[in-house]
Specification:
Blueprint (H helix, E strand, L loop, with lengths): L5 H10 L13 H9 L7 E3 L2 E3 L2 H8 L3 H8 L4 E10 L19 E4 L8 E5 L16 E6 L8 E8 L14 E9 L11 H18 L1
Parallel strand pairs: 3-7, 4-6
Antiparallel strand pairs: 1-2, 3-8, 4-7, 5-6, 5-8
Helix pairs in contact: 3-5
Length: 214
């Protein structure tokens, strides 16, 4: 799917990882790194082996299903360096390597020699992640894409259409993430229309906020 767009997609993911001006002028990589390094940090609370970005996210992680709790507690099956990619505007186009429509914040591109395609992945650092639609991520992703530049312990997370879609996952870019094997999946990655875990996490977050405000 991404043969011609891999280089552009990777560059876009790096550039999109930091706040940039609206100018169409090229931005130096050093400037991007400096901008990201100077970004203010949020609450740095340790939960297990990863960092929560805010108290609401930590509360969401307390409302896990039995399967999610087991995947959180177990040893990761892989550790991989993450990049972000998107559709349109110089990003990826078309279907993924399984012939499926990529699903934002679900589809993952992998090196199939390391992580087999059709593996249902549980990425711990994404549990409770606030997404663009206001819900919280349940941690599940789907290895349904590949890319010529993805070799070894690397993954690309699909964020949606346009570079702006990467904002919701910006803090994951260039990070080493811990990944558990949550089984195999058939067909294509599910859409977010059927997401009971995400709705439960959102409900827990809402209840937590309401309790604080009372």
């Amino acid at each position: 799917m991404r043969a011609a767009a891999v280089a552009a997609g990777l560059l876009a993911s790096i550039v999109g990882a930091a706040p940039l001006s609206a100018s169409s002028e090229p931005v130096a990589y050093a400037a991007v790194v400096a901008a990201e390094a100077s970004a203010p940090e949020t609450v740095n609370a340790r939960i297990g082996s990863f960092t929560a970005t805010d108290e609401t996210e930590a509360a969401a992680r307390a409302e896990l299903t039995e399967e999610q709790a087991d995947l959180m507690a177990g040893d990761p099956d892989w550790e991989a360096s993450a990049r972000l990619y998107h559709a349109g505007g110089g990003g990826a186009t078309g279907n993924d390597s399984l012939g499926c429509r990529p699903i934002a914040m679900r589809t993952v591109a992998v090196d199939p020699r390391i992580i087999p395609r059709r593996t249902r992945l549980f990425i711990r650092e994404t549990v409770g992640l606030l997404m663009a639609d206001g819900t919280r991520h349940d941690g599940y992703w789907y290895a349904s894409d590949t890319g010529g530049a993805i070799k070894g312990a690397k993954i690309d997370l699909y964020t949606g259409h346009g570079r702006g879609s990467m904002a919701q996952a910006r803090r994951l870019n260039m990070r080493t993430l811990t990944i558990a094997d949550a089984g195999r999946f058939d067909g294509c990655p599910p859409s977010w229309e059927a997401r009971p875990a995400a709705r439960r996490v959102q409900m827990a977050s809402t209840e937590t906020s309401a309790g604080v405000s009372q």
